[in-house]
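U., I forgot to send this yesterday:
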Amino acid sequence: MNSSPSKAAAFRKYEYKKLCYLTGFCAEQLDSVLKTVDTSYRSWSEEKINKKTGLVKTYKDGTIKKRTYRSPSVLLKEIQSRINKNIFSKIVLLPNVQGGVKKKSNLTNAKKHQGNKYLFATDLQEFYPNIKHNHVYDALIGLDYSPHMAHWLSRLTTKDNEVPQGAPTSTAVSNLVFYQTDVRLAAFCNEHGITYTRYIDDLTFSSPHNFAHLVNELLSVVSTANFKINYRKTDYDPDQLITGIKIYLYKIDGSDKIIEKAREELLNDKPVKAINNYLNRIRETNMKKDNKNK
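Result:
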């Protein structure tokens, strides 16, 4: 009569031991963190700045727009880092995903669209805050994690029922939650000869053929999955930056602003030439073959 409850308890214990093994922390330490996770962050807010004007962003009523950052405690951050390394990094994502993936970056993201005449880019509004605990839980269940493991991992990677900006796991978690939407977008784009990539909350689509008539369908795939489109950052325009990079037919390059700052850096003979190093990394991709297909 008591065999089922005993089996359930044994399975839960087994799963918790597995979590301890994967994070490298004992049960007592994990118990303590799970009970206090929402208070294990330092929070602060920063004003949002318009990158084009340099001015502070405001709402229609004049209220200043702010972004809240949350930095986990030393212990929680270490647990999250191990979750990233030993659990989330093992989950295979689509090749379309360019953010939060080893050896991929805003450069590899832009490179995928080199040579395509038509560019469409959009941005997800309040991406991390709009991902809730249940979204993370459901994504993990969809990836065949047990309800126990999905609950603990969701608890350890969210704060006050949302994904915190500043935690090392947040980008990986967002990739998992967006996985099914990536699948639908990739399938749609493959069918219509469109290149699709996502760099965290930046979605880019390109093609050698005009696909303006398909833009609303692409946006519908995103919005029906309950992600919010930032229409202010939504453009169908061949002359736009893709994750900060300028796209050409046979190359990619830095933005005009980056190129100008690189010149100033050289003129001022700064000992550390970070902007020039970044610009060189962009231009080095133009000397590598088959970069678009990686």
